[in-house]
Amino acid sequence: MNTPQTAPKIEVAALKKQFGDHVVLRDINLNIDPGAVVALIGPSGSGKSTLLRCLNLLVVPNGGRIRIGADSFDFDGNKPLPSPKAQAKFRSNAGMVFQHFNLFPHMTVLQNVMEGPISAKNMHKGEAEAIARRLLAKVGLADKADAFPNRLSGGQKQRVAIARALAMEPEVMLFDEATSALDPELVSEVLSVMRDLAAEGMTMIIVTHEIAFARDVADRVVFMRDGVIVEEGPAREVIDNPRQEATRSFLSHFHTRN
Amino acid sequence: MYTFNYDILWGYRWLFLNGTLVTIGLTIGIIVLGLLLGLIAGLAQLSRFAVLRWVSWLYIELFRCTPLLVQLLWFYYALPILVGIQIDAVTASVLTLSLYGGSFYAEVIRGGVVSIEPGQTEAGLALGMTPARVMRRIVLPQAVKRMIPPLMNQSIIQFKNTSLVSVVAVPDLLYQGQVAATDTFRPLEVYSIVALIYFVVLVPLTAVVKRAERKLQVSH
Q1: For position B56, what pLDDT does the model report?
Q2: What number is the ipTM of this complex?
Q3: Fewest beta carbons less than 10 Å away: which of A29, A86, A106, B65?
Q4: Residue A225 counted as domain residue
Q5: Which domain holds residue A126?
Q6: Number of C-beta neighbours around residue A100 at 10 A
Q7: What is the pTM of this model?
């Protein structure tokens, strides 16, 4: 059958990044289909967070190409970056959730979620508020709209952060160890929001140490080490039967948890 | 034993009042102008353009690392020779004190901005805000809270620094005091009164600073 392939939502080609002499990403190639959930796993220092941050231009690659949806960027160490405006537009299409939440402490929960649409899309307050309230209800925090972030638990903060990122209506969501800073009993409420998002068809890249969650929710798993993709494939296949020795050895640390 | 005679100074009350008002007016002027200069220089220190960083560094260090009195005399006596136009004492004073204060404000403002966790900037950028928007909506509102106590401290110092302008005959509190002292031959009483006036104006302000600092600690 020759059904036309849908174009990948995210395309990463020959991506390179180094800090001084230290090469963090060597030659990353990755295609992610619309609606796919990809778990990025690997030991610390493997470059997985850097790769995620490159996708949002929070780290500027030294070479290669990134496309998300219709916007693409070519990187060449010698060329200056496109204007801050073009960068901002690119970033607005990829929602980012950080390990340490990074909520704005001087704003209420509602204002946090409204900030993107108001500041980056010049949306009217009323419209932004409607979106924000809908998203807060979605993550189960409608009653916290007027609270300040310092009144929330870690799990609640991270759910607000997810709502804040969703408010920009991005095509993809990037999760950078979203549950690593949480107390164990608060992890599941965040994972459950992420699970719902995945079920709705959001394209997601998840940097995580929650191997069980990756196996359960992700379609694909990408294992990185020393700045290269060592192994990638269907989530269960990679986690249950890794082909590479490096993957096997990394996963062996987690097997007790599965 | 010296006998204090304050009665004789009653006739100079309007002179003291006048001097105090000049001192206060001068202070307000140099604080406003100084903050403006400090904001520009402080943010220029954080600019991605090397030229701006370099120019603001030169300005800040030039005014932080030379004595204020020398700057004042230079602006009043030396600058006119250089540029060929007469600068009146008040202009020279306001200019010098604003530039001097601005160099210290700049460091406070730069430090306040730098003290905000980079994660805040990243979160703003990740939403698709431009760097300028992130500075205005996310970083500065948080940084200003931290800057207020040191900015107020510096402003208190600026209030006292205005006394230097008496050297170039700006009729501030100290200058009027000198007039009264030479008139009455009562320097002990006059300068005690002058010191007292500075003190009385500033003590309530220091209380305000203390309260601001306490409030800041509570909210964090």
Answers
A1: 97
A2: 0.92
A3: B65
A4: no
A5: 106-169
A6: 17
A7: 0.84
